[in-house]
TrEMBL record:
Entry superkingdom: Bacteria
Official protein name in the record: ABC transporter substrate-binding protein
Lineage, opening ranks: Bacteria, Bacillati, Actinomycetota, Actinomycetes, Streptosporangiales
Keywords: Signal, Transport
Signal peptide: 1-24
Family membership: Belongs to the bacterial solute-binding protein 1 family.
Amino acid sequence: MRRIPLTGATVACAALALSLSACGGDDDGGSKGTTAEGLQGRGPITFVTGKDRSGYLQKQIDNWNEDHPNEKARVIELPDEPNDQRQQMIQNATTKSDAYSVLNLDVVWTAEFAANRWLTQLPMVPSGGSGAATAKGAAIDLSTMLPATIATGQYRGKLYAVPSTSDAGMLYYRKDLLDKAGISAPPKTYAEMWSACDKVKKLPEGKDVDCFFTEVNKTESITISAVEAIGSAGGTIVDASGKPALNTPAAKQGLEFLVNARKDGRMPKAAVTLDTEGGRRYFQSGKLLFQRQWPYQYALADKGDGSSKVAGRFAVAPLPGPNGPGVANLGGHNLAISAFAKNKATSLDFIRYLTGEQSQRANLLATSQAPTVAALYDDPEMVKKFPYLPVLKSAIASAKPRPVVVKYGDVTAAIQGSVYDAVTGRTSVDQALSGLQSKLTPLTAQ
């Protein structure tokens, strides 16, 4: 990464880079037909993405199509659940189908997709901004991007995906209820959060409000909750060398937080069935005091059209932890070109269009999704409209990634099963962690 001082972003990126270099695959990270030199062909393309909750994506596509009548893009929307999106993309890749051109990938999928030669290597501006690719104007310049996002698109030192949106978990909270309870600041620790809940419960307005929610349903979301809980306790699921690290006091403390929050009634009874959108609707209904959630919720929850009962009544803060501010998961999406796509030159231009500062600014204004262009987080106009941007920028800089491994599908499935069994009381915390350590050991072996 570019920054020399050991900031939170540098440490996070260094760990991610180590994890990527430990992944399997060819030494050159690619094969014929997947290298940067193969970016040829112009004409219509498809853009494959998860469900667009904002409704704004089609406007961006329409703008592109108006300017590129002979190179139009068509959106292919996949299911809302990330696991289903990944499976459909893999099915398309394993058949070497050219039906998908540009892929909207979860940041944690890069290693798996690149190692399996499902992605086209992208030309990247070298350090210093010189070189033949730069002279041709073909290379991707990442110098404007947040440092923490850049490594998520790289595999074995080469670029396979361009950061499009970033993400990090934040604590949404009912500021109006905290104010009425005499609480002047959001909680920085779990103990402060539980104390605030107890005080709000004594209010007439707070007696039917649940305390806290983070996703613990058996999907990708529970992997994210586990990464944040264990990371906030000072642990990790897979360490920088690529090995599982669940036989630690920190891992136990982190998982116990999730287990006890549900067992002690701090979370809604329906917590194990609520997905991301279910959690959003629950918060917007006014039934929740604290919620771990992504930035996209901000614009939706603050709508004044009657769809949200908490519009103008909530705020955001960093996630709490056991002894101070917690750790967020590094989320987001990157844009990549399928190794089997036609019209790869058009696909590269389309990626450049969607990830450019102008498009990211417009997307932030329309959807509140986190951009990857660093300057937008310090833009006075943006900060005025989205007061959470400084909190989010800090969260992204210190965020922890999910395990960056080639066999990610198997790894996250193992995490989901073990953590869900512990949260629902089917196994003890110790049994869940020891079992997960055993499952992950062969899956992460080099």
